[in-house]
Design a protein that fits this description.
Blueprint (H helix, E strand, L loop, with lengths): L26 E7 L5 E6 L2 E8 L3 E8 L5 E7 L2 E7 L10 E8 L3 E6 L3 E5 L5 E5 L4 E4 L5 E5 L4 E4 L4 E8 L4 E14 L4 E15 L4 E17 L4 E6 L4 E7 L4 E2 L7 E2 L7 E5 L6 E7 L4 E4 L2
Parallel strand pairs: 2-6, 2-8, 3-7, 3-9, 8-10, 9-11, 10-12, 11-13, 12-14, 13-15, 14-15, 15-16, 16-17, 17-18, 17-23, 18-24, 19-23, 20-24
Antiparallel strand pairs: 1-4, 4-7, 5-6, 19-22, 21-22
């Protein structure tokens, strides 16, 4: 690191001692002590945010600042660490910063971005990751986690153990894999795909995007999904079998479990499928307006 990168003021990280436009080297590094299971809050407008869990009771921030970035604040006190990219007033959307933030692996992590891509790996605690137009890619282990994006795609990988997760996007696609426990997913126009293992509860809602649910439900598991105009695909199994209730106003119901489809009305539109299992199996409910439903237990 060049002498221009020093000194740092307490609680404040600057790219160099000169204004950002005068710096020849835009890289930076800062490390502060942090609680093993404390809170880490990170924000960035544009660029990237890369979060990594590690075994140290420290938060380390490294990366590169664009010419229009004023500084990065890094403050830690009372179990809470804040990492914030600061842009000059009146230039809130014209500065990029690519930062990597290493946090204690059991931290509670909250990330907020506008057009920055967000990635996270190795964090075992609860995560709340949000971006407006950037993509979000995360390994999720902690309970009560949440991942949101407006127009960016979201990719979430679980560790197969029970947890609670909420994922939402307006126009971006959702790809969720190896998740267990309770999952709530919402998308407006983006497609959503969930591959789960020992899932106890799934709630899914989509407007004009397709929805695909694959995997194994826990005994007594519950699935409730709603769609409007695109197909819902269900490839689900569970100990004791499935109890199924499916309704579609103007779409079709098909698949290996769809032999008992009946019309809701003799003269009007609408189809319905109802199946009951002998054992205490999982319950699957699906409802769509004009989209098809494809249901199978294998």
């Amino acid at each position: 690191m060049t002498p221009l990168l020093k000194p740092f003021r307490a609680g404040l990280l600057m790219a160099c001692a000169l204004p950002a436009t005068a710096c020849a080297d835009d890289s930076f590094e800062r490390r502060v002590p942090a609680d093993a299971s404390g809170e880490v809050v990170i924000s960035n407008v544009s660029g990237t945010i890369d979060v990594r869990g590690w075994d140290r009771n420290e938060v380390q921030v490294t990366g590169n600042l664009g010419d229009s970035v004023e500084r990065v604040d890094v403050e830690s006190s009372n179990g809470r660490t804040i990492v914030k990219v600061i842009l000059p007033r009146g230039n809130a959307r014209d500065g990029e910063a690519d930062i990597e933030v290493q946090v204690p692996k059991n931290s509670y992590v909250e990330v907020s971005a506008v057009s920055a891509d967000v990635s996270s790996r190795g964090v075992l605690g609860t995560q709340r990751l949000k971006s407006v137009s950037g993509e979000v890619t995360a390994d999720i282990s902690g309970n009560e986690s949440e991942v949101r994006s407006v127009s960016g795609d979201v990719t979430v990988r679980g560790v197969g153990k029970p947890s609670s997760l909420r994922v939402a996007s307006v126009s971006g696609s959702l790809d969720i894999s190896n998740m267990g426990g309770k999952i709530d997913l919402v998308t407006v126009s983006g497609d959503a795909r969930l591959q789960g293992s020992e899932v106890s509860e799934i709630r899914g809602r989509t407007t004009s995007g397709s929805l695909e649910l694959l995997g194994k439900l826990a005994r007594g598991g519950r699935v409730e999904v709603e769609g409007v105009s695109r197909e819902i695909t269900l490839r689900l199994s569970a100990p004791g079998g499935l109890s199924v209730e499916i309704e579609s106003f103007s779409g079709d119901i098909h698949g290996c479990l769809a032999k008992g489809v009946e019309r809701v009305s003799k003269y009007g539109p609408g189809k319905r499928l109802t199946l009951r299992t002998v054992e205490s199996g999982a319950r699957v409910r699906a409802k769509t307006l004009s989209g098809d439903v494809d249901i199978c237990d294998r």
